[in-house]
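Homework-ish question, so no full write-ups if that breaks the rules, but can someone show me the predicted structure for this set?
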Amino acid sequence: MALSRIFGNGQETKDPYGAPGTGKSTLISVVTIVVILGGWWLVTELELIRALFVPPPGLVFSKFLKISCYDHYMESLLVFLGVQAEVVAECEGFSENALHQHILASLYRVFSSFFLALVTAVPIGIAMGVNRFARGVFDPPIEFYRPIPPLAYLPLTIIWFGIGDFAKIFLIYLACFAPLAISARAGVKSCSIEQIHAAYSMGASRHQVMWHVVLKAALPEILTGMRISIAFGWTTLVAAEMVAAKAGIGVMVLNAARFLATDIVFLGIVVIGLIAFFFDVLMRRMERLLVPWKGKA
Amino acid sequence: MPAVMSLKDVGMVFPATTVGGSVTALEGINLEFEPEEFVVALGASGCGKTTLLNVMAGFLPPTSGAILLHDSPITGPGRDRGVVFQKHALFPWLNVVENTAFGLRIQGVGARDRTAIAEENLNLVGLSEFGNHPIYQLSGGMQQRVGLARALTTNPEILLMDEPLGALDAFTRENMQELVLQVWRRTKKIVFFITHSVEEALFMATRLIVMSPRPGRITHEYKLDFCQRYFELGDARKIKSDADFIKIREEVLSIIYGEETEE
Ligand SMILES: Nc1ncnc2c1ncn2[C@@H]1O[C@H](COP(=O)(O)OP(=O)(O)OP(=O)(O)O)[C@@H](O)[C@H]1O
Ligand SMILES: [Mg+2]
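A: Not a homework solution, just the prediction itself:
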């Protein structure tokens, strides 16, 4: 009985003839996560798989504490937070950086790329949507490079810009650029001809129609583009950090793999996943805040 | 009385496209609008009613003839002609009062003044309590009332309405007919109103024009006073079931159907 209340009984009793698949699924998702974590713990506990391949959760967690600090501030913070002093004493960071330094280095790269893409791709996309000349100019290059995997042109960015941060930011920038430009371009088509005519007949100038109607109506699409874009940029991060980076969450995983430190590889993957999830939640919050009318009119 | 707006031999030919030949949507349209008139255009689908309204609003330049407003030709859309559309014309990113005040805002009227004027107009259409509501939470009838209030806020001389009640259910529609008439009586605007419904047309118009398709032309004109009778009696249903009303309704219906069977 209790189980069928959680999982439903195949058809929702409250609305038997409603659209399929409605209702909350949060609890079910929590159960899934618990099952996955439990399964992970179980196979390592029973030593079905060697720790080299799948390290036990406990080990990954203690590694998390160990690489969390590389300096005295973090050490005292950890002690303050109640972590045992002996554990903290073993803290060593990884690749000469604490975990948060890796994360910050990666966030810096992704956000500066995303920001650069935002201020360039959105105006270009809008221009493409409203101007035939801009569309003619920008359409071929964007449509050409868009489907190419970033790994394919990574070597070229290194030849051009060297192995510094700029090459990495450029690579992520390219990944962020296309979805933003395309969504902005599509967005300026979202207003109806009636809305445009209404504005004109209330005395609006071309300029005012652009600003007060076309761009406002484009906002929902642009925000969707931002969400796709930041996710795409984050996906490209590990590729961008493959070459000569000291700090970065992608570097951490790559270096750890080189030393067969599977626990740190696991940890890195979990951190990358959690941060991406956090971005998405943030962007969705922003959508609800900025474009509450989305999909309703 | 001098005509406020006049159409002189207006024609509109849409050029041929890849899917078909050229379409003569309007031909030889002559119309004069005098103060306080309620002109209704009626005709089968595709007879050029929307094209006529678009030409008058200034969205489409006619291919022949001229449209004069106080003796000077119109060159494009303007504040002197307010437009109410069938649907999809409100701005969902603005709430009810902001939508209504839009025309004043782009003129640079200050927030307090434009809100006051917008609220006056919302009051006129019976929406004074809904100023802060988002558009997408309103019913279809309420949205059309916002559209009407918004068009009135810039104080146009003529209101152009393209099937403003076409998307509403029968009950709301009848109530809205009365509301539009009350607003017209209070604001004394010239109204040009398009509809598919013969009953609606006869009930509301002071002048009815009947159009025929291909080429779109005005074939019949009637002077009517059913709306005046409504203002005196206050009972819309009674007027619509009156013997006079039914007689002329059947006459107009046979004109429209007659044209269709001729083809
Ligand atoms: N932009 C256009 N290009 C080409 N032909 C058009 C265009 N707009 C309208 N037409 C044609 O002009 C004719 C009149 O169209 P219009 O929309 O004015 O009719 P209507 O009377 O408003 O019809 P309805 O009652 O269905 O709204 C139709 O034959 C239509 O196909
Ligand atoms: Mg039409």
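Now go work out the reasoning yourself. Hint: The longest strand of chain B covers residues 23-33.
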